Amino acid sequence: MATTKKTTAKAAKEFKDTHFIQQEEALTENEQDNIVEQPQVVKTTTKKVYIEEKMEEEFEYIDRLYILKGSKKPLVYTIPSRHTQAKPLLYFDKELRKQRELRYATNQSSPLVDEQNGTVTLGKIAFRNGILRVPKDDVALQKLLSIYHPFKDKVYEEYNAAQEAEDDVDLFELELEAMNLAQALDIDILESILRIEYGSKVANATSKELRRDALVFARKRPELFLRLATDEDVELRGIGARAAEQGILKLSADQRTFTFGDNGRKLMTVPFNEDPYSALAAYFKTDEGMEVYNHLTKRLK
Predict the structure, then answer these.
(1) Average pLDDT of the chain, as a whole number
(2) Residue 19 pLDDT exceeds 90
(3) For 241-275, b where at least 16 C-beta lie within 10 A, e where not — what string?
(4) Mean pLDDT of 183-199
């Protein structure tokens, strides 16, 4: 009799479990139908969870170095570490579409106040001699400084060795391009470029000195050198500068008027807020200016 009761109970349990599984499968099929009919609801929830998980997965737990921007490196420099009414420290969450308070707590794993639990131990954020080293186990501070803090890339920046190397390579390539161009350009063009940078100091320089100064200029300021070297007006500006140095043309003290040196006749007025020799180069391109340019080149030879 006892054996019969056990067998009956076991059968009932198996039926109940089987019935439950069938209901669950039916429910799953209904949910799938609903997903087809209302894909937006499911997509939004999935996207939110995916983004949160992705942020956690992509954050690399390594020692980090933060550096104050600018030339000044004070002995101690502190930045806000928690949100207050006097000094707001907030992060706008685009997914949740709301402002979230920030707070650095040494005993929490997140700098977001709504993700912190229990009693918090507040910490300070202080740069010493312009730098702040944060070990990999201080996750809250690293996330605050690397992701959320509004001072990032404004007051301070995170040091990135790979990015620094990439920037160095770009600079070296730019310097090399500028120096190769300085080596290849005609000496007259180099003189025109150097006149823009150094003025009349290049008037008595030899060809070797001009080439050397051009190479030094290209190495120190490659972007400016390349811009000047590829400027179609650089030679025209150089002619104007040489003419002014030799007294063929005169530029007024306020740098607003060019006149002829021999008779004082007015040549042109420099537009307001424009470089005088750039304006003169533009004038040389006009019909009237071309005649003056040809006259000047003949007198300068």
Answers:
(1) 81
(2) no
(3) bbbbeeebbebeeeeeebebeeeeeebbebeeeee
(4) 85
Q: State CA 115 to chain mean position distance.
A: 31
What pLDDT shows up at residue 144?
95
- In angstroms, rounded to a whole number, what is the distance separating the alpha carbons of residues 116 and 211? 65
Q: Which residues pair with 133 in a beta bridge?
A: 65
Does the structure show a pLDDT above 90 at 31?
no
Burial readout 81-101 (b: 16 or more C-beta within 10 A, e: otherwise): bbbeeeeebebeeeeeeeebb
Residue 117 parent element (H or E): none
Q: Which residue has the higher pLDDT, 6 or 291?
A: 291
Inform me whether the pLDDT recorded for 25 exceeds 60: no
Cα–Cα distance measured from residue 207 to residue 188, given in angstroms and rounded to the nearest whole number: 9
Closest listed residue to residue 160, CA positions, set 58, 54, 63: 63
- In the block, tokens 């007025």 appear at 269
Q: Which tokens in the block code for residue 220?
A: 């120190």
- Of the candidates 55, 95, 119, the one whose C-alpha atom is nearest the C-alpha of residue 103 is 119
Residue environment code for 64-79, b if the CB has 16+ CB neighbours within 10 A, otherwise e: bebebeeeeeeeebeb
